[in-house]
Design a protein that fits this description.
The chain is α+β, with helices and mostly antiparallel strands and about 230 residues long. The protein contains six helices and eleven strands. The protein has helices at about 1-15, 25, 35-55, 60-70, 125-130, 200, and strands at about 70-75, 100-105, 115-120, 135-140, 145-150, 155, 160, 175-180, 185-190, 205, 210-220. Helix 3 crosses helix 4 (about 60-70).
């Protein structure tokens, strides 16, 4: 791919190595650098990538400033969003040798939409019911005021089937329904049997949502929108 070859050349000249781009959540244990140093390192490199993707023929300095203040980089550590977003083997359920790395657009005032893949801060119940909490990535399925139903592995919204071509692995357990309260959203992992999500710990308040994933910047052969 021509754009990949060009990207490799840019990286070579810049000295950046996208394999080291990662999210703060995965490198918090790295004692070799302070948290501020870790944050600056991965963020500068991720911003370099998104600027290259978006600004081939535009004034880079101006737009890079805009990108820096509106995006954040994350890595995908689990199989909950397979195969849309890959985690890395040998972690359970992962389909790739390298985890995907993505850029998230922080919501300024935009209303989240159904189908968005969002990064969010988990409600407290996630830690007790899933054994993990913090920052999760899921697909936004149910909007405020709606009723979400799962039956025979298929999702419906207020009784109408939801088309989900991105789901390859469906849940085969008992049917259930959930009402989404005002100001909250219902999120699911694309890998339904392996995802601990709103079916288990409830909805996500609007204020917990960091933003939607807008680009995958690593590995090179998967650059683009997820």
């Amino acid at each position: 791919m021509e754009h990949v070859a060009e990207f490799r050349a840019i990286l070579s000249r810049s000295g950046a190595d996208p394999r080291t781009f990662t999210s703060v959540e995965i490198r918090e244990h790295d004692a070799a650098r302070t948290p501020d140093q870790q944050h600056g390192r991965w963020r500068r490199r991720a911003l370099f990538v998104v600027a290259w993707i978006v600004l081939t023929n535009v004034g880079g300095a101006v737009m890079l400033t805009v990108v820096e203040h509106t995006t954040k980089a994350y890595a995908i550590p689990s199989s909950a969003m397979e195969p849309t977003l890959h985690c890395a083997r040998p972690a359970p359920g992962c389909e790739a040798g390298t985890m995907d790395r993505v850029l998230v657009l922080r919501f300024p005032s935009r209303t989240p939409k159904r189908g968005d893949i969002v990064v969010f801060k988990t409600p407290p119940a996630a830690l007790s019911k899933c054994g993990a909490g913090g920052t999760f990535t899921k697909r936004l399925v149910g909007l405020p005021g709606e009723t979400v139903t799962e039956r025979n592995g298929l999702i419906s919204i207020d009784g109408k089937p939801l088309q989900e071509p991105y789901v390859e692995h469906r849940y085969e357990g008992p049917s259930a329904s959930w009402h989404v309260p005002a100001g909250a959203y219902f999120v699911l992992g694309d890998n339904r049997p392996q995802s601990c999500d709103s079916r288990v710990w409830g909805t996500v308040p609007r204020g917990n949502i960091v933003g939607p994933i807008v680009a995958r910047y690593w590995p090179l052969d998967r650059i683009g929108s997820p």
